[in-house]
Design brief:
Length: 265
């Protein structure tokens, strides 16, 4: 774990704890749920980690108006015991300096927070262009490549179209019948189980900008379990359809299986 100083957020662990709480808060989690989940997030391995976790957690919870008596008492207990002696490994005076920082934190959080952080509001992206299972012919370089739309999802202000890429590459438009026997990128079978499908998830702004290049050519029903058992490659920053085609070819370099193996009939 990297430690840059004696401040409350001057370490990787503290930064992760603080940001984890803030992300849950801005994503609409209730204060009660955040309190429950942050306990599960605590995997402190030693005295110093425990101190860092407790202090960062207390600061974040105070800022969002959710600090509990238990969390405040945990900070008091650390101060009463004294900052971890491991701080001396950073510098001879670091333990004393850290103790002062912890005392300042306690003075701060013992006072009611008059300026509780407001939750960030994110505009919901609602104009999804495709329906699940749609076969989409992508016209690029005077040929047709083919993807299958799986889902759309949004995280804060970012949205992604999730596609199953196929090996289809022809001058003719695809159909549901021809695409079924094309190959798609998959994970290897584990212990004789099913394939997991690897999806290519592309930033929604790029798809909306190039929506005229996507032609609907039919529909298939892909087994949701195959999607859930796989993983995605999330990409953004394409300049043009050639960039997208390069990414399609790249994800197809690995393990593949025929599409119909992962479909429901």
């Amino acid at each position: 774990m990297a430690i840059d100083g004696i401040g409350i957020l001057d370490s990787d662990l503290a930064y992760d704890v603080y940001n984890h709480i803030m992300e849950m808060y801005h994503n609409g989690e209730s204060i009660e749920q955040i309190g429950i989940k942050i306990k599960e997030f605590n995997s402190s391995s030693d005295e110093m980690d425990g101190e860092i976790f407790t202090a960062a957690c207390a600061l974040a919870m105070w800022e969002i108006g959710g600090l509990t008596n238990e969390q405040m008492q945990a900070v008091r207990d650390i101060i009463s015991k004294g900052a971890s002696s491991i701080w001396k490994d950073i510098s001879p005076d670091a333990q004393k300096q850290r103790q002062r920082v912890l005392s300042q934190l306690l003075q701060k959080i013992e006072q009611p927070n008059q300026k509780i952080k407001k939750r960030k509001k994110y505009k919901k992206i609602s104009n999804v262009l495709f329906s699940r299972g749609e076969i989409l012919a992508v016209h690029v370089n005077n040929r047709y490549r083919c993807v299958i739309f799986e889902r759309f999802y949004q995280h804060r202000n970012d949205g992604y179209y999730s596609f199953v890429v196929t090996t289809y590459n022809s001058g003719d438009e695809p159909s549901a019948e021809t695409v079924l026997y094309e190959e798609i990128p998959v994970t290897k079978k584990v212990n004789g189980g099913e394939y997991g499908i690897r999806t290519l998830d592309i930033d929604y702004k790029f798809i909306e900008e190039h929506k005229s290049a996507f032609l609907k050519a039919g529909i298939v029903s892909i087994d949701p379990q195959s999607i859930n058992s796989g993983f995605c490659r999330q990409v953004s920053g394409f300049n043009d359809l050639q960039d997208m085609e390069w990414e399609m070819d790249d994800i197809l370099l690995g393990e593949k299986a025929e599409l119909f193996v992962c479909c429901l009939f």
